[in-house]
Design a protein that fits this description.
By secondary structure, this protein is an alpha+beta fold. It has helices at 3-11, 20-25, 46-59, 111-118, 137-143, 150-153, 187-191, 225-237, 250-259, 280-296, 308-319, 321-324, 344-357, 386-403, 428-441, and strands at 16-17, 39-41, 63-66, 83-86, 93-97, 102-105, 123-124, 160-166, 172-176, 200-207, 209-210, 214-222, 244-249, 270-278, 301-304, 331-334, 337-338, 361-366, 372-373, 375-379. The chain has 15 helices and 20 strands. The strands form five sheets. Strands 15-12-14-13-18-20-16 form a seven-stranded antiparallel sheet, sandwiched between helices. A five-stranded antiparallel sheet has the order 5-6-10-8-9. Bound molecules: flavin-adenine dinucleotide.
């Protein structure tokens, strides 16, 4: 029987998609890469995921896990066909354990829906990617995603207590749990951030964080990007780790204002959105520290959000930034790299220089507090050579950040995008160690092939025969 017939036998015709349109739609995520889909499967249970993996193994095809497809590094893009396992229907919240501040959820639960469900208990899921109204917990776990409020709270890995995962042979593994210090090897830590290359997450036990008693949100306006960046370093140097410290440059605030009207100053060279949370005396004292540092760095205006409505609007402006860019150019490429906060000023200068050199308009909106840059290049993909210029500029941006002491990615993952740049950070020994882990979980290389680890990572074993059907 054919692959498609076997899958229909398991899921029925409604949950197996193979039309030209479906294969086109699932051939891409929110980034710039396009892949080739053989068939899309929409499971609803762990048992169905396990059986899909067994069917794919019988037919010798790869399996590519997918959440909402909002990833920007090509992680969910199938390279060379195979079954896309889209978990969007696995969106049950099985348990909210308010006493233990955690929840068991399906991988297809949308990030914001989890926080909304936890709200009556005074809790929320702390990782808050700007895509949180669309992206899934499975995608967050696989990419170890971050968000504006991960500066103080840490990225997804700090909020995953346990996982249920379907392995390459269809077995179901459960790692971690509610116990505070699980014993044994920390496979949970290995699986978080593995970008669908080791298994398919079918349930996650996530930590829920108490909602803060009080909050202050400051909008700070600067006449130069350098002063805004220096304020970020200054705030951290003053011993403060705010709940969020986000930066936008002028082009970005203009795009947001044109689209949304969030009340951002369009004549400022850069703005900072700073938020502190906690008890009232603490947030007032911390807001004062931020005011003092910003004033020292020539802030033009410091505005405190008057009420929850104004605060929500400012955050809506920040979190809608990428969407707002759509009115400025047909296509954009959003990058994700990290530099030490102390290198923000000089790195930002060079980021704009790279844009100018390649004739690309560069816009910036990013998690400044943890040095996580998101240079965004606007272009028109129909213009011959435009995408090639964008890729060349993107590689230079990564090289610049690594040279300045940073890392390849802050939160979007490696996927296809940065696979061939892994050597900038990892030695052959590092890559080999990671490839051995991949091989232990997925000996035939069937899960999400050609992602994360560059070809040849298993460097000390070139002489060994590669198993038949291996896709690494
Ligand atoms: C406008 C916009 C704003 C964004 N802002 C942020 C941000 O602030 N912070 C941030 O970190 N990211 C951000 N992102 C990137 C993206 O939203 C995150 O990486 C998100 O976690 C991806 O979730 P998803 O459900 O869309 O996953 P997908 O894109 O579908 O998949 C992402 C990766 O996860 C794997 N995967 C998905 N589900 C599973 C599963 N069940 N088991 C195993 N592997 C799985 C896929 O194979 C792929 O490698 C943004 C993206 C957009 C478009």
């Amino acid at each position: 029987m054919s692959l498609q017939t076997d899958l229909i036998g398991l899921l029925g015709t409604d949950r197996v998609l193979a039309s030209g349109l479906d294969r086109y739609l699932y051939g891409k995520d929110a980034g710039v890469y396009r892949g080739e889909v053989t068939v899309v499967a929409l499971p609803e249970t762990t048992e169905e995921v396990a059986e899909i993996v067994r069917i794919a193994a019988r037919h010798g095809v790869p399996v590519v896990p997918r959440g909402a497809g909002t990833g920007l590094a090509g992680g969910a893009v199938p390279l060379g066909g195979g079954v896309v396992v889209a978990t969007t229907r696995m969106n049950q919240i099985f348990e909210i354990d308010a006493a233990n501040r955690c929840a068991w959820v399906g991988p297809g639960v949308i990030n914001l829906d989890l926080s909304r469900a936890a709200e009556p208990y005074g809790l929320h899921f702390a990782p808050d990617p700007s895509s949180q109204s669309a992206c899934t917990i499975g995608g967050n776990v696989a990419n170890n995603s971050g968000g504006p409020h991960c500066l103080a709270e840490g990225s997804t890995v700090n909020h995953v207590l346990g996982l249920e995962v379907v392995l390459a042979d269809g077995d179901v593994l459960v790692v971690g749990g509610k116990a505070p210090d699980p014993i044994g090897l920390d496979l949970r830590g290995i699986l978080v951030g593995s970008e669908g290359t080791l298994g398919i997450v079918t349930k996650a036990l996530v930590r829920l964080t108490p909602n803060p008693p009080d909050v202050r949100t400051l909008l700070i306006t600067f006449d130069s990007v350098e002063d805004a960046a220096a304020t970020v370093s200054g705030v951290i140097a003053a011993g403060l780790v705010p709940a969020a410290l986000e930066m936008m440059d002028q082009r970005m605030t203009q795009a947001v204002e044109n689209w949304l009207g969030a009340g951002l100053p369009t004549d400022a060279a850069a703005i900072l959105l700073a938020e502190v949370t906690g008890d009232t005396p603490a947030v007032e004292a911390e807001a004062d520290v931020i005011r003092a540092v910003a004033t020292e760095h020539r802030a033009r205006e410091i505005r405190l959000a008057r009420d929850e409505a104004e605060r929500a609007l400012l955050w809506k402006g920040r979190k809608s930034a990428f969407g707002a860019v759509a009115q400025a150019a047909p296509d954009y490429y959003l990058h994700d790299t990290v530099v030490p906060r102390t290198k923000l000023v000089e790195t930002m200068r060079e980021v704009y220089e790279i844009g100018e050199r390649y004739g690309l308009t560069m816009m910036n909106v990013f998690h400044a507090g943890d040095g996580n840059l998101h240079p965004l290049m606007m272009f028109d993909a129909s213009e011959p050579g435009a995408l090639e210029r964008v890729h060349a500029a993107a590689d230079e941006l990564v090289e610049l950040c690594v040279r300045n002491g940073g890392v390849l990615s802050g939160e979007h993952g490696i996927g296809k995008e940065k696979r061939d740049l892994m050597h900038l950070m990892f030695t052959p020994v590092d890559l080999d160690a990671q490839a051995r882990i991949k091989e232990a979980f997925d000996p035939e290389g069937r899960f999400n092939p050609e992602k994360v680890l560059p070809a040849g990572s298993r460097c000390f074993d070139f002489g060994r025969p590669i198993p038949e059907g291996a896709w690494i």
